[in-house]
Amino acid sequence: MLDFGFDKLALIGAVALIVIGPEKLPRVARTVGTLLGKAQRYVADVKAEVNRSIELEELQKMKTQFQTAVNDVEQSVRQEVDSATQALNQTWGDVSGEGASYESGLPAPQPEYRHPKKNWRLKRGATPLWFKQKAGVRRHTQSGAARVARFRPPGTRT
């Protein structure tokens, strides 16, 4: 860029004072200052945009490198799992003696669940009567009207 020393700035100021005049010089100096400030901000914005684009390109390169590394790891894990599955199939076939492979990857189906058919009435009958009374378990079925009549306060029965 241009190299302005103190002597050159003083010469420019003296020429501007003679050409523009002392009345208009402060207004022109303010205008020149604001324009220089805007130019500096514009240059700073352009630099920031260039830096952002460079960083974006670097991030995209890192993303592609990371993606290739992930794909390589995935392939190696998949190969190891496949080789382990093949070894398991071979071992399973040798142990079973049938020569059948363990292709499905699932164990043999379990028998269907059957409820033990426990008699809950029998279990309930084994509970002592004193415990049922304390816990408030009803022993007899009673209609609502009979329950109201049973628990009605004395002297109000009709």
UniProtKB/TrEMBL annotation:
Organism: Pelomonas cellulosilytica
Keyword Signal carried by entry: no
Superkingdom as given in the UniProt entry: Bacteria
Membrane topology: Single-pass membrane protein
Region (Disordered): 92-115, 134-158
Compartments, as annotated in UniProt: Cell membrane; Membrane
Keyword terms: Cell inner membrane, Cell membrane, Membrane, Protein transport, Translocation, Transmembrane, Transmembrane helix, Transport
The protein, known as: Sec-independent protein translocase protein TatB
Family membership noted in the UniProt record: Belongs to the TatB family.
Pfam families: TatA_B_E
Encoding gene, per UniProt annotation: tatB
Chief localisation class: membrane
UniProt-listed InterPro entries: TatA/B/E, TatB
Function: Part of the twin-arginine translocation (Tat) system that transports large folded proteins containing a characteristic twin-arginine motif in their signal peptide across membranes. Together with TatC, TatB is part of a receptor directly interacting with Tat signal peptides. TatB may form an oligomeric binding site that transiently accommodates folded Tat precursor proteins before their translocation.
Subunit structure: The Tat system comprises two distinct complexes: a TatABC complex, containing multiple copies of TatA, TatB and TatC subunits, and a separate TatA complex, containing only TatA subunits. Substrates initially bind to the TatABC complex, which probably triggers association of the separate TatA complex to form the active translocon.
